Amino acid sequence: MPISLPKSFESGEDRPRDRDTELTPQEIVAELDKYIIGQNAAKKAVAIALRNRYRRRRVPSDLADEIAPKNILMIGPTGVGKTEISRRLAKLTSSPFLKIEASKFTEVGYVGRDVESIVRDLVRMAIDMVRQEKIEEVRDKAESNVEDRILDLLLPPPRRREPGVEEDLPAFEETREKFRKQLRDGLLEDRLIEIDVRERSSAPFEVLSGSGMEDLGIQIQELMPGLMGGKTKKRKVKIHEAREHLLAEEQQRLIDMDQVARLAIERVEHSGIVFLDELDKIAGRESGHGPEVSREGVQRDLLPIVEGTTVNTRYGLVRTDHVLFIGAGAFNVAKPADLIPELQGRFPIRVELASLAKEEFVRILTEPENALLKQYTALLATEDVRIEFAADAIDEIAQVAEDVNREAEDIGARRLHTILEKVMEEISFRAPNIKPRHFVIDRAYVRTQLAEILVNQDLRRFIL
Predict the structure, then answer these.
(1) Is 291's pLDDT higher than 60?
(2) Does residue 112 contact residue 290 with C-beta atoms inside 8 Å?
(3) Quick one: angle between helices 358-366 and 372-381, nearest 10?
(4) Residue 377: which residues within 8 A CB-CB, separation 6 or more?
(5) Whole-number mean pLDDT of the chain?
(6) Burial, 37: exposed, middle or buried (Cβ in 10 Å; 0-12, 13-18, 19+)?
(7) Which of 427 and 220 is assigned the larger pLDDT?
(8) Could you give the angle at which helices 239-254 and 117-154 cross, rounded to 10 degrees?
(9) Separation of CA 321 from chain center
(10) Most confident of 104-113, 293-302, 423-432
């Protein structure tokens, strides 16, 4: 079965939906269908939650403040699409998105990450997102300024106070325009010019280790950037290297970082999405890491963030009242009812994601815009090797994935990655020099590549 690549994949483009374009729930589900197979209940729930944000912005402000987001709890085994649904949802709307494992937090008073770091991390992501958008807005102006700065270095402008300079200005402008044309034609890229380069050093923070100390190091760096270097020195570099340094400087100069911070905080407060994974691992009162650090304590620390509180960040106060929280977990041992009642009440929407079977694996391999077979086809095409997957090969790969998931631990669609990597190992290894340059992978080839593994139960569990 030939795998045709979508235009967005061939060109390397992955364009997010414009923030001003409001999607209906049906359109949201249709977009998610391009990347995630099945799990319609979960897609419907997140589509409604996203649309409700748009609806809240259109109601009177006094009532809008009272409308809290309906947080979602996704229940299902690993590899069935919980994270991907949330990540794609955020990408559709250019929303700040943070995925974090709830099990990484510890109760206040114990060593580990505090829950307010969720908000700080989300704000940093939003700052980067808004800054990048502003960089795109000023790119043309910045590039024009950089061109003028390079021309000034190549041909310093004359000083008007010198005798006879007025007569030289027309000749100077003519010469400058000749240099400009050569610069735009790429004829001066290897010419050396002298620029000021800012030195950066992270040496003062190399001694900081551990998650808590790492957060401290980031905050100190943000508050006192001078400690991370900041000195400049003159260096002679080629124009193509200088352009990168000068462009970064110009973009930074043209961007109003106070405005960036305000927009980022607003985006976090009204559009932020936090994906709390492994929520089942903090359900209950017993701890797997020592008797003193209770899982209930972690839940109680998370509760204010999820309920709605104000967190102080270096960019300002951030309210979490309207941040959308999506909890997730397998809940094989613990159940949602094992969470403390207050936290249960903050996740009113519950959706169960089904385990994947052979039929879903076939669709996952072929239908999504980022389907695995399309990825392998594109990767090997860079070596001028054409790969086609026959229908019986796809059927065999899907069947093996279902069988191994049933006999070993069910890791969902992630099983396809391990199986395909083994199937494609020989071709990938020999691709630069392989002959012929066109392969049709069929059922027989798949079975040959997996034969030794499939007959050995222990080997199957270890490799696949």
Answers:
(1) no
(2) no
(3) 40
(4) 3, 5, 387, 389
(5) 82
(6) buried
(7) 427
(8) 130
(9) 24
(10) 423-432
**Do residues 371 and 3 lie in contact, with contact meaning Cβ atoms separated by under 8 Å?**
yes
CA 450 → CA 37, 55, 92, 360, 418, distances in Å?
26, 52, 38, 21, 11
- For residue 437, CA distances in Å to 201, 375, 440 come to 48, 18, 10
- C-alpha angle 241-244-246 in degrees, rounded to nearest 5: 105
Question: Which residue from 21, 39, 26 is spatially nearest to 351, judged by alpha carbons?
Answer: 39
The encoded tokens of residue 204 equal: 């003062």
Q: Tokens in use for 365?
A: 């391999």
Candidates 272, 347, 268, 260; CA nearest to 89 is 272
Task: Report the interhelical angle of 40-57 vs 25-33 (nearest 10°).
Answer: 140
Terminal Cα-to-Cα distance of the chain (whole angstroms): 24
At residue 385's C-alpha, the angle toward residues 379 and 387, to 5°, is 80
Length of the chain: 464
Does pLDDT of 442 surpass 90?
yes
374-391 per-position pLDDT tens digit = 999 999 999 999 999 999
Instruction: List Cβ neighbours of 381 (8 Å cut-off, separation of 6 or more).
Output: 387
Contact assessment for residue 153 and residue 243, using Cβ atoms and an 8 Å cutoff: no
Q: Which residues pair with 75 in a beta bridge?
A: 329, 352
Q: How many Cα atoms are found within 13 Å in the side-chain-facing hemisphere of 57?
A: 11
In this predicted model, what pLDDT tens digit does every residue of 301-349 receive, in sequence order?
A: 899 999 999 999 999 999 999 999 999 999 988 899 999 999 999 999 9
The pLDDT tens digits for 180-213 are 888 888 888 888 888 887 766 544 444 344 444 4
Long-range contacts (CB closer than 8 Å, 24 or more residues apart) made by 243-249: 243/146, 243/150, 245/195, 245/197, 246/146, 246/149, 246/150, 246/195, 247/142, 247/143, 247/146
What are the structure tokens assigned to 10, written together? 């061939």
